[in-house]
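Moderator note: this is an archived Q&A kept for reference. The question asked for a predicted structure of one protein chain; the sequence and the answer are reproduced below.
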Amino acid sequence: MQFPPYGNYSVDISGNVLEVFAVGAWNLKTTQIFVEEMHSLIKRFEGKPWAALMDGRRWVLATPDCQTCLSEAIKTNITMGLCRSAYVLDSGMVKKAHLERTHPSKQRDLEFPTYERQYFERYFQALNWLHQEGFSPINSPMK
């Protein structure tokens, strides 16, 4: 049985940053559609280093099968140049704990020395960190 997608998102590229705004509760169908769209977009980086900025303040978590799908997508993203991920979340720990299960460095057999993720409560804190790390939605590495 297939379920219709739940939750919503917007995803776009600005400069050398993939910007994601996640809303609502996600099921596997939503996650799969998101991953497909995201992987299509990040081809535009042509393997050059890039960062992701995910605003999850209006996100209401996802089903457990989504974690596996997202974890695999993040590993693929890293092989395609993802170096930094900045997650903007509200102050509760539940979303962060949920997202930590998708972190590839938490898996014993995998090591990604060029990848780092950080969590923030404010959008501009996340932007500032990415800027300090060499990533900005203002820069335009695309032709």
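Archived answer notes: The longest helix spans residues 64-79.
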